[in-house]
Amino acid sequence: MELNQWVDELFEVFDEDKDGVINRSEFVELIDCLLQDKGIRMCESIFKRFDKNHDNSISKEELREMVIELAL
Ligand SMILES: [Ca+2]
Ligand SMILES: [Ca+2]
Question: Where in the numbering of this chain does the EF-hand domain appear (predicted)?
Answer without folding.
Answer: 2-37, 38-72
